[in-house]
Automatic annotation (TrEMBL), chains A, B, C, D:
EC number: 3.2.2.4
Keyword terms of this UniProt record: Glycosidase, Hydrolase
UniProt protein name: AMP nucleosidase
UniProt domain Pyrimidine/purine nucleotide 5'-monophosphate nucleosidase C-terminal: residue ranges: 345-463
Class in the EC hierarchy, top level: hydrolase
Gene3D superfamilies found in the cross-reference section: 3.40.50.450, MoCo carrier protein-like
Length: 465, 465, 465, 465
């Protein structure tokens, strides 16, 4: 990684740098044709996306959490991908000086930068509309996810040891400390971490694991951050991430988590975290996946016990007792979390060996098409949900996740709130007890400040039994 | 690389083994889709090709030189590529036991085996007819060559140090020893070797370099063998080759040599070697390539001096004195060959740096379409040649190469000999002195037993001034 | 590193573990004779020392700072070094469970444990009394320091990049954060850290550097902690230390710092830190060392400026303006500290190259015998000091350091206070202004709570002009 | 390894070079004191030894076998070890140019050169007369052997895989080819080779293994050559050796073989080889070693079968049938040799694990003092031998070895022949059948040209029953 640069006067207040970067790692041996396509893509429709994502990476680890801040603080930042006979050159203009040391870009930042270019370009070129037909099938989507992850070099034929950690990005100090403690205990046991790559519960486990890995003298550590273009600007990759992957959308990002990870730990979070739990249960409760071992642990500090109690109660009532066999709730015991996870992953390893399944990608997990496609919470779609007892648990889980998603949109998202104003409350078909339980859950989130509401909470739906 | 196997009774005399191989290195992280395509290709039209090439690799280093021998000695050998959830499995039936140690395949052989599968499949899938339009342009062909070499992992962004060695596969003992001596001196200077991967002048330089590399404690050594399906069976890769590449045809193989190598050493050989020299001069004498440094050394032991004198005389007469600036003839001095080559490659390095050209692929070299496409020596094609003084040297070189190729075919190749019988001698338009010189060259080859003729040599062409 | 162990019931409250450890790294290839001597030494007079030091290492990173705590919390802890044909086995009884994960010792802790055994045994065997004559000369002591460091594998023929950080072990929160910030900036510039291996200013720089090294993807990082038996129990190595060295006494520890380090950063500390500055100036101001580059930076946050101002004033008055050329004071600017240090170390590198001096040990630095031997602050010794203007600065610096050391002892150390009570105040021969300045400095330390005194500060000496 | 050098005019015919070498690997981190001792030793009594040994290394791989040749061809060669602040510098004057490439020393040669300096100096300094008392005991000698080998870095805690190969240095072409074939089969099975480091049976196995290791892609290969000052000049290390050790004398060299190696293959050789077999049986037949697994295979091509048949017959008659359980004779089957050796070494591994004995040094093998001390074949010593049936086999083996050694000396060594001339034949006390068998063995060696005699063979001893 070389570069030339001139220190230039910052436009506003923050110092900036102009630099030329010759990236490595997948971008160093390209054909002339590929370089040309890369350059064209980066100048064309992809340019703004590229600009936003690279700025997020260049401000990694800066204190502010506000995505708009970065755009405003570095209004003149620009990026250009250029062709050279020897490969690719990335020109940065008015880039944040904090990404540089004595005029030289920090090596880890340069790697993240190359990852952004690599993934956006791969998506633009290899998953372009002309492949649209492939992306219509479940298998085609899974294949696309696989190829993107392989291109990002995160598929390695090593022993299973990857723990995915989910949870809120803005959690309390105690909860954050707890995620660090869990990460530390996981790290002591040689486990690597994969998260959504932002702050909060996505950063804590990596930080704890870093210290534990150092103590255990672990050389090859993986702190994988998987994000998507809509989130990366708001949730800039924390500086510990050493493998960054940008998936094209939320659904492919979720599929990456469940296919890459050998187990999942869920920390307290907002409604998004609850949705993710329902997504996962909707998959794991399918008959096809019944025999697949998949360690899933819900955990938090003692003070956060109510969060998981409510979720647990809601799951029991809606999906039935059997659903609870798929997860374990552990409160205030990081060491136990790590011990259980390590033991669960050993089971995964044995299962994969017995099935001659790969270690690095969970091909056997059945993820149906409806989990791979976005859900748009229109009034029609919401009216089409079927929340009654007696349905197959995984189907119910899928509809509950959709209901959840729609209600949240109706309460806090601009788009959803406008619809409610215009067309009135959603009409949801469902059993009353189930809907009351859902309501109770949402109210609890509001109380715990995990869902931010202007004024009092008022349901945005009506139940039609 | 694991495997299970049963020792089975050999069908004829030679012991064979049944084995299952789980290959690594590019074949270990495949998508389900890719594995399926690989399996289908290996069962379909590609199966016989695959069978022949893998048998060549499995008999690597065995004493016999006769390609048919392998087919006859192992008549029941078969190969099947199978799909497993975890990737690819290669099943070998009645495979030569010499490729195994205590029932376990020799690791180097397994690597060559995986290389065969990798390249044949890449060609079958990625360079299939539906890409035919791409392969109509010179740039498209170069791009295909690049991608095949990259897929074979022989493109590395390291300092230039790759010497291509050309020469005959059946040369005399003294000439063979000389190729070893040159390889030794090249190896002492840290240079790696690339050849056509068979015996003779393709093996000697690698053998010499191996000893020198060991003495210099060189860790990362590259003995690259580039072959093509029509040759591999007859010229089984020598056991030193640690990177094997199978290009789809002779022209792409030649282009690989000139784009990968940083310099070329030509040892004595048959008419094929003379053709290769004309191929290379036809490229290097183009105006576009005039400024490109490209070390080219013709060398052999003292006793082989006449071979190069005749070639040199022929080039001077046909292409002019200027053409001789592109090569140096060194006789009986391996150390000088190595010193000159090392110095020439340093110049290549500086030139690439100055031009910001890549170290691993000579993009700047202009190889026109007619050098990338096969030449069919029909009577029409031969009559179309224009061998007169006054033409541009590189065009004349190209036509001379074709004339050469056609005349050789007319003398020794079944297909060509039949045509001559049927339609009479080729009618070649050319200046008399040039054709006489060509004739003298061919006669000398016959005398030196470098071209094998049944009976007396009789020209198969007539000159039309 | 293997081990067997049984979890046993803790004697008091804290859980303990019995374990067997087979150490690596210098202890793995021993002769039978060496193993026997090691075992004997560990059972004989060295046993208590070994027990205390290993307990310190096993409680690494635990929250308590109180050394006695460890001894009281693990009263039944014991260690035995045993002989096995294959080498050394260390048996731990009732060892702190916090050093273990699921019954397996943390690898980093095991390394520190092996380092303790290695160094204590080397000192006991190789620097035993029978070598006493060697240790009477300055060269002999330096040689012993060299051999101990080499045996600890901290002498590496790599480029100069080792920054020694000095400062207090119990500093304020702001000062601690500042040491982290400086460590971070040093780490960003590829510099490694060496400290006294305890908490406070000995931990902060390592912690900051760890994060920076991760960001810069630095693979081979060195966090060297150099301690001695009298300190290690009280200042347990922080968990980041990956190279631990236990020197036999304070003087050899100080010599290790100045011969190993390529530059020194001094953070605010107590009187000990002030003494260390005088030790270093006493060496650097010698004519023999005048031409040796040795970057020395005194730095702290803005709020700590007074500390260095007082020291600076004291040095100017006593040793003269010229002495200040040997150091630079930087306040509140971690980035500048790192830039200056990196630049200073580049000068060191060039100087060593020009002098053909080694990179890993500063042989050229003249450290006279009186700096290598302990100073006992008896009344006679104190009366022998000569604190008058006009002396050579380095001699005056040495005597000032001794005066300082004696006065501190008279004020706060049990032994010294008893002597004062018994024989009255020290009689120090010195110029009045110099002694007043010394007095002012001490009073400032008391005010800033850097020297802890029961009751009011009362000088324990009388000046005799 | 750097160097400066001037090409100088050769004194006689062969080109020479002056060079300065800065060695690595154990000589790079020395104390000033050590460097001074090294320099003094190399100038003092050790200088001639050092000069001879380094010249042997510098002419490694040259065609001539005659040690005197080297001395005569390079009469002005000299070496000086010099002190530099940064470590050691070796100055070579009029050194053979064949050890250099374009003025730069071949890296492997430089390593062997550093090994020579390292071992001679270690012996001169660490095993000097003042340690004589230590070397009076069996344990002390074993300890010295251990420390010398450790200092040479050949003790590695890796899995047992080291095969010692013994046999003649001037053997026939077929026998040489056979040693290569066996080395090849050993290498295919991942085994490393240790020999006496000269030509013939000491080179062949390494050469074969090199090719096999390359085919098996074995990265860390060990070709250990163990020699001693009296032999190295005559048997210059072959160029494949990558670990050279110079033991102080023949007995320590033999002890190194039996303690380092995990199994021994004996090829046909001269009388020296027969002596080595008796040495080994004298050790293995001791009761203390009865339970120790130690694979020992005697092997050669079919044509060499008589050699081992005679030895076998001699052993049966003298030491009894039981002795033959300690070895296996395999004729004309390299693959079987390798399979048996690999299997034997697996047993060694299990035994060491069970006994917790080290992998890298056979501490458990009992080698008594008389095997560690030289035998001087005076008439008194020969008369003291006791070659009667009924003695313990290992004692008889020891005496047979001595008798053998004395008789060979009396027949072919200048010193021994003179004694016989002066004092008449040796008077040996022994049973007639045993002595006749010995006689038959010697006559066979003469016939097979394995012992070179001027004129007819005439016994140099008389039997006294």
């Amino acid at each position: 990684m070389n570069k030339n640069q001139d220190i230039v006067a910052p436009t506003i207040a923050l110092p900036t740098v102009n630099a030329r970067i010759y990236p490595r790692g997948g971008l160093d041996i390209l054909s002339r044709e590929e370089v040309a396509r890369l350059r064209d893509a980066s100048r064309g429709g992809m340019h703004d996306l590229l600009r936003r994502c690279t700025l997020a990476v260049l401000t990694t680890g800066s204190t502010s959490d506000d995505p708009r801040a970065a755009q405003e603080l570095y209004p003149d930042f620009d990026i250009e991908v250029r062709q050279q006979d020897r490969g690719v050159r990335i020109d940065l203009k008015n880039a944040p000086a904090i990404a540089f040391v004595d005029g030289e870009i920090i090596r880890g930042v340069a790697e993240l930068l190359a990852a952004v270019v690599r993934d956006l370009v791969y998506t633009a070129i290899e998953l372009a509309p002309e492949y649209a037909d492939e992306l219509d099938t479940s298998g085609g989507i899974t294949d696309a996810v696989f190829r993107l992850l392989r291109n990002a070099s995160v598929l390695q034929p090593a022993d299973p040891n990857l723990v995915v950690c989910w949870g809120g990005h803005s959690i309390g100090r105690d909860e954050y400390q707890y995620t660090k403690d869990v990460g530390y205990e996981l790290g002591l046991r040689g486990l690597d971490i994969c998260t959504g790559c932002g702050p909060g519960a996505m950063k804590g486990p990596m930080k704890g694991a870093t210290i534990a890995h150092a103590k255990q003298r672990k050389r090859h550590t993986r702190y994988i951050g998987i994000t998507e273009p809509g989130i990366i600007a708001a949730e800039s990759p924390n500086p510990i991430v050493n493998h960054l992957v940008i998936m094209p959308d939320i659904e492919k990002r979720l599929e990456s988590f469940v296919r890459l990870g050998h187990g999942i730990v869920v920390f307290p979070g907002g409604v998004g975290t609850a949705e993710e739990i329902l997504y996962l249960l909707g998959i794991l409760l399918r008959e096809e996946n019944a025999q697949l071992p998949f360690p899933l642990i819900l955990t938090g500090p003692v003070a956060s016990a109510p969060y998981f109690e409510q979720i647990d109660r809601f799951i029991r009532l809606t999906l039935g007792e059997a659903a609870t066999r798929r997860y374990e709730i552990i409160v205030g015991n990081p060491e136990k979390v790590a011990r259980q996870m390590a033991s669960g992953i050993r089971t995964v390893r044995e299962h994969r060996l017995a099935q001659k399944d790969s270690f690095y990608f969970n091909w056997s997990l059945e993820v149906p098409l409806e989990f791979q496609q976005p859900f748009q919470p229109t009034h029609e779609a919401m009216a089409g949900l079927d929340l009654h007892h007696g349905r197959k648990p995984h189907e119910l889980a899928a509809d509950l996740r959709r209901a959840f998603s729609g209600i949240v949109a109706g309460n806090v998202k601009e788009d959803g709130m406008r619809r409610i104003e215009q067309f009135g409350p959603f009409q949801i078909h469902g059993d009353t007890d189930m809907m009351e339980s859902l309501d109770a859950l949402l109210r609890a989130f509001v109380e715990q400040r995990r869902m931010k509401i202007a004024g009092d909470y008022k349901p945005c739906y009506e139940v039609i039994a």
